[in-house]
Specification:
Helix content: 25-40%
Largest sheet: 2 strands, antiparallel
Strand content: 5-15%
Number of helices: 4
Number of strands: 2
Strand order of the largest sheet: 1-2
Distance between the termini: 51 Å
CATH class of the largest domain: Mainly Alpha
CATH superfamily of the largest domain: Homeodomain-like
CATH architecture of the largest domain: Orthogonal Bundle
Number of domains: 2
Order of helices and strands: EEHHHH
CATH topology of the largest domain: Arc Repressor Mutant, subunit A
């Protein structure tokens, strides 16, 4: 059973098992030794695009138009970790023939 989530030094949450108390030390303990350490962000795990997600993206562009990525994201049941920027990037990387086919309809 997870009681709480605690930030580790790489800025990612990890579960704290039941019965353990968080060791919250002073912020001086976590000071970076390398410049830019605090600007490092946690990276998301890469999840390949399914055929269904690609078809939802195409249908969404037909319905809402290019650039309405947040509307497309909320309208279709994409993977839980897809964000509107992922949709934009996928659209940008689709072959031009596929994009033209969608935009003609």
């Amino acid at each position: 059973m997870v009681v709480a989530n605690v930030w580790n030094r790489t800025c990612c949450l990890f579960p704290l098992p039941a019965g353990e108390s968080p060791n919250l030390q002073s912020p001086s303990h976590f000071k970076p030794k390398v410049a830019g350490y605090l600007n490092k962000k946690c990276s998301r795990k890469r999840v390949p695009w399914s055929h269904a997600e690609v078809s939802w993206l195409k249908k969404g562009v037909m319905l809402f138009g290019v650039g309405k990525w947040a509307d497309i994201r909320t309208h279709f049941p994409f993977s839980y970790n897809r964000i509107p920027v992922d949709l934009k990037d996928k659209w940008r990387n689709l072959p031009q023939e596929e994009k033209n086919e969608v935009l003609r309809q």
